[in-house]
Design goal:
about 425 residues; mainly alpha; three-stranded antiparallel beta sheet; about 50% helix
Amino acid sequence: MTQVSSGGLAAIGRAEDGALRLARNAEADLAAFRTRLQLPASKTAVLLYLTHLQARGTSAHMLRKRLRQLDAARTFDGQQPWSADPDVRRLLRGLHHERPLRIGARGQPLYRELTSALVDEVMCPTHDQRRWRTALLLANETGASSRALTVLQWSDVRFRTDRVTIHWRILDHSRMDKESVVRREQAERTFEAMRDLWARAPDRSQPVFASERGASDYQRMWTVCRALPPYNHALGRRPRTSPDDLDALIRSTTEPSSEQLRDRALILIGFAAALRTGEASIARIGWFQEDSDGLLLDLPRRREVTTIPRGQGADCPVAAWRSWLARMRRQGAGSPADVAFPLLRGSVILRRPLGPAGLNRIVSDRAAAAGLQEGFKFTNLRDGWMRDAIRAGISTAQIAAHADLRSMNSVAVHEGRENLLKHNVASRLGL
């Protein structure tokens, strides 16, 4: 029997550790892909993941290598490798013979599911919304004053798995403890909010409640916290407010910004109405009318009034328009002649319309922030609606009428491209 030296055994061990590390990295990348698309851990998720890699230009060799890494992770965990599944093997063989569709300067269509991803990113809480929500939760839990919260540093905060301990630099009264302990089991919302703010902090040498520019504003902190109960001398602290009152206060303090409301309405209406870039730029508030069917949009350059149906939940264009219109009216910019999608200066709504460059930048930036590829334009919302309509089996005449197409040839082009996707390998597998 051939004996292996101790050095050889060490080299084998290092190689095995490296292979396992690569396998775990591949597994983590798959998990991130599933999380982004809200997919369960299943064969379907692996098939979509491999198709996604191939569409990004991953070579056949690297696809096989990635599948081997995923198999190694499964085998290590005592599970059947993915490559043992016939559908996975069939898809991988097919991907070697399929090339991704050539994408022109127009870009890829933003299908309904991708539009939903953009809306989710738009309505994701901003840094200011996160920090003021956390400040209210912490002030209510510990009784700390606005001054104490303003000067709090991350170096004063210590995290454990079950609690967070805070050392206060300013004691507002003699009975205030120098330290506060927020236990996860007793105040989970406050604990999780603090941990989330810590995880997202770009520079932990700055104050806990610093703005994105690093400044800590006492005046703004005082404005946020003044709605909480005042200091009670008998209790020796600020009394806690009721959960319902606290939730109402958080909602009013961290309401969506004007930019969030405008961008959500713009994306949802741009998709549902199949708007051209020029149409979105010149649209006026008076051209929108709400009725029992949804929104009616009377664009002067279209031959027919466009009906925008209601949607579900956060993806409803009618509800998005209603919220945005209320915000414009609150700032005195909601007259019928005002532009529907104006420029903003911070939270101030201007009377000037977004031009094509501004519309394209909104879609491109939101898509990049949502983890989608770069290069999307506003017109890809229109393309996405038409491709979705083709998928749903809507007639060519109805698609052309809704999108105000002068020729059926445009629908035919989209139908041809959609059929290429419809008959690819992944679709034949039932995905």
